[in-house]
Amino acid sequence: MPNPHRGEIEARLDGKPCTLCLTLGALAELEHAFGHEDMLALAERFQSGRLSARDAQRIIAAGLRGAGHDIDDAAVARMQAEGGAAGYVDIVARLLTATFGVSDGVRPSGSDTIAPPSSKGVRPGGSDTIPFPGTT
Fold first, then answer.
1. Inter-residue contact 87 to 94 (CB < 8 Å)
2. Which of 117, 105, 130 is nearest to 22 (CA)?
3. Could you give the angle at the alpha carbon of 35 between the alpha carbons of 34 and 41, nearest 5°?
4. Cβ-defined contacts of 67-72 (< 8 Å, 24+)
5. Average pLDDT score over residue span 4-22
6. Which of 58, 70, 79, 111 is an S-S bond match for 13, by CB 3.0 to 4.6 Å?
7. How far apart (Å, rounded) are the C-alpha atoms in residues 14 and 78?
8. In this structure, how many other beta carbons lie within 10 angstroms of the beta carbon of residue 34?
9. Residue 43 belongs to a domain
10. Does residue 78 fall inside a structural domain?
11. Domain range spanning residue 60?
12. d(CA 112, CA 115)
């Protein structure tokens, strides 16, 4: 069972429940894959709302590896998500939200609109937002 306090989510891939988590190592992997120098640049890329299928594949693969699954990007490319393409988008949106925080643009699973998270988070137990490290 995923631990949301650790940034974990659960997703069904190939009909099986899987835990995903973007650990520090997984984020470093994504920085390298996307050619970014730091986490702020990575968060800004995700905030743009424009992610390719290859981006989604990399994010899901990094999330699976971050949660301890021994899997490569090619195996993830062959996996099926419930809901087809929308299912992949939902997984990525929930994983990015769990990692970077909550955004007004992100809607829970099953909603009609999904957007990547902003670089702002929510303080535990409160509604005040705090900026992502490095932002003003």
1. no
2. 117
3. 80
4. 67/8, 67/18, 67/19, 67/20, 67/21, 67/23, 68/19, 69/18
5. 94
6. 79
7. 9
8. 14
9. yes
10. yes
11. 4-131
12. 10
